[in-house]
Specification:
By secondary structure, the protein is α+β, with helices and mostly antiparallel strands. The protein folds into two domains: 186 residues, Ribosomal Protein S5, domain 2 (2-Layer Sandwich); 174 residues, GHMP kinase, C-terminal domain (Alpha-Beta Plaits). Helix content is 41%, strand content 23%. The protein is built from eleven helices and twelve strands. The strands form two sheets. Strands 1, 2, 3, 4, 5, 6, 7 and 12 form an eight-stranded mixed sheet that branches. Strand 6 and strand 7 form a beta hairpin.
Length: 391
């Protein structure tokens, strides 16, 4: 059974009646634009056809009861206590739900009580943003009467606040924005400073995206992520001094400008800045490539992105590099790169559709032989963001 069927079935079992409403939100993969979001830069994620589902019935009181099928746990709290609520140590997954209720009420929005069951088709820990999916799907359910009238960017920002301030994870805004604004057949070119965005058509009759979960846990991602942020902030200070003007973030420096002063930066800081500055340019180049039909150029930009992440930003690892090389070894693949924070997780590749069967049948075994890990490869379609429907 898929997540939708499991959520509905679990609801009947746990609450003894049929659910009347269903919300869902997608996984996401970042097509290009890595480690640019916290530098006020540009990213291009797409929502993909893996979803988290919430089967629910609204309640007349302020009680929220939620059962997680994957965790086989129930969490319950009252909305009256939401503003002073503390994190749960027993059902840590429930903190994402508690955090959403807290963030909504802190912003003057009244969520509804509900009985709900959650089931997901999104692998946890693979870098596909299962956390943003649960936040946005739950927010959609809690706001079911108001959903058509509340600005989706506002919901995204409140879900990010829930994760930052309640759960305690310093995520950027990209994941929640694509979960709320995803559109079938399109990626989202997002300006992370202004939160303006453009839907870029990336469905193609001859090409498709493959997302390969390497099964390598992202053990270093959090600690190294924080180090990279500090290095970028140091780069901003040094570049402001060298260029003799105020620079808020690395997105304010062009590559041509950077090349005039890069020799005066410490080696590590120079490479970190070079990745972010060139990656921002690759995001815009990828958009132009798809809009003009130059798919080969889009693939080249994905390859350049991986090399920059590997050499300049140093967030790749053996397993990611093996997967990238195995995918690139197939003539049908025109580009492949790590996606997400790095140090494990997923690779995204752009391939001819006619080569998909061969890739999906041969790469997993070759990767397993090289790493001892069992990967999961899926062809992913750009899909809709959060949805709400009556059952």
């Amino acid at each position: 059974m898929n997540g939708k069927e499991r959520a509905i079935g679990a609801f009947k079992e746990k609450f003894g009646c049929e659910p009347t409403m269903l919300s869902s939100s997608p996984a996401r993969v970042n097509v290009i634009g890595e480690h640019t979001d916290y530098n006020d830069g540009f990213v291009m994620p797409m929502a993909i056809n893996m979803r988290l589902w919430v089967a629910f019935n609204p309640r007349d009181d302020e009680v929220v009861r939620v059962f997680s099928v994957e965790m086989a746990q129930m969490d319950e709290f009252g909305l009256k206590e939401a503003l002073s609520m503390v994190r749960s140590s027993d059902a840590q997954w429930g903190n994402y739900i508690r955090g959403v209720a807290w963030a909504l009420m802190s912003d003057g929005i009244s969520p509804c009580g509900m009985d709900a069951c959650i089931a997901s088709d999104i692998p946890i820990g693979a870098g596909l943003s299962s956390s943003a999916a649960i936040e946005t799907a739950v927010a959609t359910a809690m706001l079911y009467e108001q959903f058509k009238f509340v600005d989706k960017t506002r919901i995204a920002k409140l879900c990010q606040r829930a994760e930052n301030e309640f759960v305690g994870v310093r995520c950027g805004i990209m994941d929640q924005m694509i979960c709320m604004h995803g559109r079938s057949g399109h990626a989202l070119l997002l300006d992370c400073r202004h939160l303006s965005f453009e839907h870029v058509p990336i469905s193609h009759p001859k090409y498709a995206f493959i997302v390969a979960d390497t099964a390598k846990e992202r053990a270093l991602a959090t600690s190294e992520y924080n180090i990279r942020r500090q290095q970028c902030e140091e780069g901003v200070k040094l570049l402001s001094r060298l260029l003799q003007r105020e620079i808020r973030a690395l997105r304010d420096v062009s590559y041509e400008e950077f090349k005039t002063v890069e020799h005066m930066l410490p080696d590590v800081i120079r490479r970190r800045c070079r990745h972010v500055i060139t990656e921002n340019e690759r995001v815009h180049g990828f958009r132009e490539a798809f809009l003009s039909g130059d798919i080969a150029k889009a693939g080249e930009l994905m390859n350049e992105s991986h090399e920059s992440l590997k050499e300049d930003y140093e967030v790749s690892c053996f397993e990611l590099d093996v997967m990238v090389e195995l995918l690139r070894s197939h003539k049908g693949v025109i580009g492949a790169r790590l996606t997400g924070a790095g140090f494990g997780g997923c690779v995204i590749a752009l391939s001819l559709k006619e080569a998909l069967d061969e890739i999906l049948s041969s790469v997993p075994q070759m990767y397993a032989n090289a790493t001892g890990l069992t990967p999961t490869l899926n062809v992913c379609e750009p899909s809709e963001g959060a949805t709400l429907e009556e059952i």
